[in-house]
Amino acid sequence: MEKSRSKSALKFVKSASQSAASWTSSSSTSSGRGMTKDEALKDRLCDKPKTAKENNKQQDFKLHTQQRAVKRAMFNYEVATKQYIIEQQKKQEERILKLIEDEEVRFLRKDMVPRAQLMPFFDRPFLPQRSNRPLTIPKEPSLSFQKMSNNKCSSSVFPSSEYSLIFNRAVRL
After folding, report:
1. What is the pLDDT of residues 126-139, one digit of tens each?
2. Is 138 in contact with 128 (CB distance < 8 Å)?
3. Contact between 170 and 151 (Cβ < 8 Å)
4. Keywords of this protein's UniProt record, alphabetized (predicted)?
């Protein structure tokens, strides 16, 4: 691609230089006013040799994809480290819980071990003795409210007389 452009540019320069030479010879014979616009343009093209400009050199592209890739890699690394830390903490908690459970099991096993009991004395048998305390005598509850009606407490317990009448009738039946 580059070669085809340079060839066409060379052809243009050659043709311009040939036409400029013909114009200069003809212009000197014609009016001596100076150069026309076409002549000035052609002189500019012929006088300066074509050189590559320094500003036209190709620069490297700075795309954000590389920066984003680096940031994404750092983010992935941080996420992975957090997950690893969380897993380690869970494993440590499980170990601690397992140790606690093992200690509890050991303690329970120690407690569950049957202890040796003394042998009973068969040469002197056990004879229960009668208690010295007197027997309890039950008392019947007094459910009649007629006795309580004389007291002031009955009015506070049953404020309406209708309830006490209904209750007394139910007790009598």
Report:
1. 788 888 999 999 98
2. no
3. no
4. Cytoplasm, Cytoskeleton, Microtubule
